[in-house]
Structures are given as structure tokens and as C-alpha cells.
Specification:
With 324 residues, the protein is an alpha+beta fold. The protein is built from ten helices and nine strands. It has helices at 3-13, 20-30, 37-46, 49-61, 63-69, 89-110, 127-136, 177-183, 204-208, 251-271, and strands at residues 73-76, 79-82, 153-157, 172-176, 216-217, 221-225, 235-239, 275-281, 297-303. A five-stranded antiparallel beta sheet has the order 5-6-7-9-8, with helices on one face. A two-stranded antiparallel ribbon has the order 1-2. It has a two-stranded antiparallel sheet with strand order 3-4. The relative contact order is 0.07.
């Protein structure tokens, strides 16, 4: 291909779904026209800002901090310096060899999972399948609830590929990079089950979650007006999964409940300017006053002039249908 043909291709014919094509051509030009796949992969990694930011964070969190404490290195802003005498070529080679031995020993003891699934990626996940898994997970880590805005998201094989797990929808879940590395290749927990199981037909809150009494909801929680309100607008925020103990709430469910708490308190403040504060809390077990054993969080608006009712409510409670 001649120069003008390559130029015409780039300007007129190149269709992009990512930066890969122009980056590959640019890299080959810079390297004199040819390069190994390994050289090209290194260049791609250097241009992946999310990966660079991730490893900058990891460096600051652990190895830089630990090695500085032992006076092996010194940090001055973003500059890291090895705190040792000037090494000869032979000494440099020996130090490098010792470090490589340490790395190899650790990899052999822990398996390739220390670099997560990427080193075992001989069976790449098709884009369409990756999209489906991310979409149905609502773009959240199934374990901690992190989103793409706060962490790198991986598609995890529930049964690890190193243990025979297949690249198919039923064996895939979304985990953030941190949770995925922590899981490693020795665990096959399906974290999706944590937040989508147990609808209890005998539970009043489970039944109400399907009714028109719901005033707010998201993927993992919903809101109802309390049937025995302490003050006007007293609202319950309830996970969709049936369980009783607040301390069993997953991070995903807690994030979802907090989102509804914020929305509801804003709605109440906008509607009633007499509200000056809120009580927010949950009762855990009968000894603490829990009467419905499906975990729920109370949001109780407080305003001057609320008149307590000896039976637990207040005078002039607004009907549920007004959604206030």
C-alpha cells in the first residue's frame, strides 16, 4: 500500500468502534514499520488511561508505602528513588535476578490469578455477551456494588476457567477488579444469587413490593409509607430480598436503600417546609422492637408541632394514596 492509499484509508474508509486501529498503525510507524504483538500490546497498555490510573493507585496504597517504611525507596512527590549506593552492572543483574525469583515463587504458590483472568484469557468473552452480562447487572459489581464510575469492572467466570468453567452466560458475573482479584481462582461463589433470591409469600413487605403502595423503587429496594406512622410522611425503605437482620444487608442493597433515602427526604423537604430534621434507623430483632421480620429502615420526618399519639402514630396522618 502506497502512502496516499494509506492516508486515504485512514481519512475515508476507517470505521472505529475503539481507538485500536489508528493506535496500531501509529505504533507501527513509530517502530519503523514492524513490531511483535508483545511490543504492540505494551503500547496499547500505555494508552489505557484506566489501567494507568488503577496501577498508580495500587502503587501508592501498598508497595511504595511498605518499601518507604523499610527505607528501600524514597518518594518525593511523584518521583520514586531507590535508596541504595550506586550499583555495578553485576550488582544490578543480581538484584534483578533475586526479584524475579521472588516473583516466580509467589506466582507458583498462588497461581496465575494474582494478575486476575487476563493471563488466562485464551477464551475472550464476545462483546455481545459482555454487554448482556453488564446490562443485566446494571453496571454494578455483584459483590460490593461498585460501578464503572468508581472502579474497573471485570466479567468474572463464576467457576474459574482454570477449573473448567465455560465462557457462557450462566457462568458469568460482574465483579470490580478488586473483588475479582480477591476471589481468585479457588472460589466459585455466584454473588448474583445474594441479591435476587427469596421472595416470601407470607411476608407482608414482600407482598407489598408488588403492590401499588410502592412510592419509590430501584433495582434492589423500594419505599412504602409506614402503616403506623410516628409523624406525617414516615417512610420505610425496604430491600426486595427477604431477610430480617440489618447486618445481613449487602453493599449493593445498602447503596440502593441509601439512594431511596436521599430521594425521599428531598421529596419530603420540598413538600413540607416545616420539616427541620429526620430520624433514620432500623430495629434488629424482637428485643429491639422489630415487629415485621423483613429488614426495613425508618425515615421519620421531624417538624415543630408534631403531636405524639399514645398508640404510636400522630394526629392527622395523611392517607397512603397521597404518597406523602
Amino acid at each position: 500500500m502506497k502512502f496516499h492509499e494509506l492516508k486515504e484509508f485512514i481519512i475515508e474508509k476507517m470505521r472505529l468502534s475503539h481507538i485500536y486501529q489508528p493506535l496500531l498503525i501509529k505504533t507501527l510507524v513509530e517502530l519503523g514499520g514492524s513490531a511483535t504483538i508483545r511490543q504492540l500490546a505494551i503500547t496499547f497498555l500505555q494508552n489505557d488511561e484506566s489501567q494507568l490510573l488503577y496501577y498508580e493507585k495500587r502503587l501508592k496504597e501498598m508497595p511504595i508505602k511498605v518499601l518507604s517504611k523499610h527505607n528501600v525507596i524514597k518518594r518525593d512527590g511523584d518521583l520514586i528513588t531507590l535508596e541504595t549506593q550506586k550499583l555495578t552492572l553485576e550488582q544490578k543483574a543480581e538484584i534483578k535476578k533475586l526479584c524475579e525469583q521472588k516473583m516466580q515463587e509467589y506466582i507458583e504458590s498462588r497461581g496465575l490469578s494474582i494478575w486476575d483472568y487476563r493471563l488466562l484469557d485464551n477464551d475472550p468473552i464476545p462483546d455481545s455477551l459482555r454487554y448482556r452480562v453488564l446490562k443485566e447487572a446494571k453496571g454494578r459489581c455483584a459483590l460490593c456494588g461498585a460501578t464503572k464510575d468508581t472502579a474497573l469492572l471485570d466479567i468474572d467466570h463464576i467457576i474459574p476457567r482454570s477449573r473448567g468453567g465455560k465462557t457462557e452466560y450462566s457462568n458469568l458475573q460482574v465483579l470490580c477488579a478488586k473483588c475479582n482479584r480477591s476471589k481468585g481462582n479457588k472460589d466459585k461463589t455466584d454473588f448474583r444469587e445474594i441479591t435476587c433470591k427469596e421472595f416470601n409469600e407470607n411476608c407482608v413487605f414482600c407482598r407489598k413490593s408488588k403492590s401499588n403502595e410502592v412510592i419509590l423503587e430501584n433495582d434492589y429496594a423500594f419505599a412504602l409509607l409506614d402503616g403506623y406512622p410516628v409523624t406525617k410522611g414516615h417512610t420505610l425503605i425496604i430491600p426486595k430480598r427477604h431477610f430480617s437482620d440489618y447486618f445481613e444487608t449487602t453493599i449493593v442493597e445498602l447503596n440502593a436503600a441509601n439512594d431511596l433515602l436521599r430521594i425521599r427526604q428531598k421529596d419530603l423537604r420540598d413538600y413540607d417546609h416545616l420539616i427541620t430534621g429526620f430520624n433514620v434507623g432500623a430495629n434488629v430483632n424482637e428485643a429491639a422492637g422489630q415487629s415485621v421480620f423483613h429488614m426495613h429502615i425508618h425515615l421519620i420526618p421531624r417538624r415543630k408541632g408534631d403531636l405524639p399519639n399514645p398508640k404510636g402514630g400522630v394526629r392527622g396522618v395523611i392517607p397512603n394514596k397521597m404518597k406523602y
